[in-house]
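Researcher: Structure for this, please.
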Amino acid sequence: MPCNAKPQCLGERLASAIFAHHTRGAIFDVSRSGAEWWAQVRQGGHKEEGIQFHWDTDEAAVDQYGVDVHPHLSTVTYLTDCGAPTLSLDKRSSPRPNDAKSIYGPVPRGVLAYPRMGKHICFDGQLLHGTVPSSEEKGERVTFLVNVWLNHRPSNCFRLSEQLAHRLGDAPLSDQSFTQLVSPSGHSACLKPTVFETSLGRRSNDHYLRVALPSVAGNQGATIPLEWPEGSAELRRTL
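Model: Predicted structure, token format:
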């Protein structure tokens, strides 16, 4: 969605509003800036329905030039109250995908955000993130995703066709569409942490992530900043 274009449907209208909200006061080239947007629907309670950990990037730039170009910001807007929480980690990717050595090591910090209808989270577009699936999280998880790109348009992103935009429909956004932003709710005092382990990779699962997370009980809708002592959370090459 180009930042200087008129929205054709509700999806483009919401993407434009999110872009404007997070770029207020910023200086950028409007001809090469905009919002990359999509929606996801996942059924909770199934491990295979989790969203693999990844770095948002211009996929074509990786394939054609072997370089990682990331959005300035990544955002998630939850449209339901249920489903897996989003975990973003203070672990940036290497400038070039083949230089994996630079990404390995301890993970110092992260933020765990549980779904709540209307909740909107935003983080640095260079950070590793994904979802933490749980068999206890039943129901349909619906999210609206927007990546904010400044001075660069992802190579394989295109404007929605007028025909499809018409089918999606439109509706105005009121001043109450965005509620007051709420800061993370404090460090988790979790008595029974669980260890989350997963493998990840762009083409093969050649990275291994291990972190301790608070238990789900009592955290529904919460946003929890996390810190790990050195060595207790790590990203490394799969053995």
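Researcher: Any notable elements?
Model: The chain has a mean pLDDT of 87. The helical segments are 10-22, 59-65, 162-168.
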